[in-house]
Amino acid sequence: MGIRLENLVVKFGDFKAINDVTLQIPKGKLVSLLGPSGSGKSTTLFTISGIHKPHSGKIFFGDRDVTGLEPEQLGIGLVFQNYALYPHMTVRENILFPLRNLKWDKVKAEERVLEVAKIVKIQDQLDKKPAQLSGGQQQRVAIARAIAKNPDILLLDEPLSNLDTKLRVETRQEIRRIQKETGVTAIFVTHDQEEAMSISDEIVLMKDGAIQQISSPSDIYMNPVNKFVASFIGSPEMNFIDIAINDGKCTIDSLTIDNLPKNMTKATLGFRAEDLEVATEGLKTKVMTVEILGRERLLTLEHQGRTYKMLVDKEFYVNEGEELIVKPKTGKSYVFDAESEAFVTKC
Ligand SMILES: Nc1ncnc2c1ncn2[C@@H]1O[C@H](COP(=O)(O)OP(=O)(O)O)[C@@H](O)[C@H]1O
Ligand SMILES: [Mg+2]
Hints:
Blueprint: E1 3-12, E2 15-25, E3 30-34, H1 41-48, E4 56-61, E5 64-65, E6 77-80, H2 91-101, H3 106-119, H4 135-147, E7 153-157, H5 165-182, E8 185-190, H6 193-199, E9 202-207, E10 210-215, H7 217-222, H8 227-232, E11 239-244, E12 250-252, E13 255-257, E14 266-271, E15 276-292, E16 296-303, E17 306-313, E18 323-328, E19 334-337, E20 343-346
Parallel strand pairs: 3-8, 3-9, 6-7, 7-8
Antiparallel strand pairs: 1-2, 1-4, 4-5, 9-10, 11-14, 12-13, 14-19, 15-16, 15-18, 16-17, 19-20
Helix pairs in contact: 2-3, 2-4, 3-4, 4-5
């Protein structure tokens, strides 16, 4: 079942935590709500799940207007970061719990527990108590409990935050597999752009309670609509330099860029670490640090009091303290408006 938010506004007192959010999530897709802390991701999710009530706007599940309904009326699955399992119950009893509440037939409910336990691969753990499981297994039990009643919609709020890095990567792949296997429509909240990039059909990037961009992972990386999106997506963060434009040209040290918009006098140029190259004419930088990442090396370069990140091949040898002349590869720089920070063109 698809989800549609129309002009959603959620207030706490006078404060608009969600400011006019309109969004459509197609049936069977996994969409991430991504953004920095306080950007309104959880509030959006809590409002969709009926825990918070919107000040204005509408929420639709399929064609059904569910605005203002209570969580119990919605039949959705919820998984939270700290959605604690009942510690005194076994895994089996934990997964059974919501089905008992829904007065499922006992035999059917037992069968369903086995079914979902298999989907999340904890079928051997059913008689254990949560404390006997690893963090990753516990989170799988939470997911099993959330999907047991066969919800059309699954909402996950930072479900992996309590896990260590390796487990986080494994578990996010598991969530994606389970989501595809069950065909459930899922909203996945995270502040981790890499996590969002790796599992989403679409990313909704939020800031200050408003949507900045809705795009596929590759598109949001390649075509950010503004400087905020460009800086939030990708690691290391995109490099930025403020430039003055004269008749479509700008000069930085020995580098002249000449295909800039003629109607602009200043702008911010953005370029990613992998899109810098060594040049004879370019920015005269000093190598501050060389980090060996394995496949590549990450250089931190200093130029006129600012630092830039550059990714180079692991075979590229340079020492800290050396001078390096670099330039953004042609066509790989983003021009942002100096005032509005909106994307203008690539150059
Ligand atoms: N119950 C609440 N009462 C008052 N303010 C809240 C409440 N919940 C969230 N907020 C505020 O709303 C904004 C969005 O919060 P939240 O949705 O939790 O952000 P996120 O999940 O993106 O970190 C924040 O400024 C937060 O302080
Ligand atoms: Mg949150």
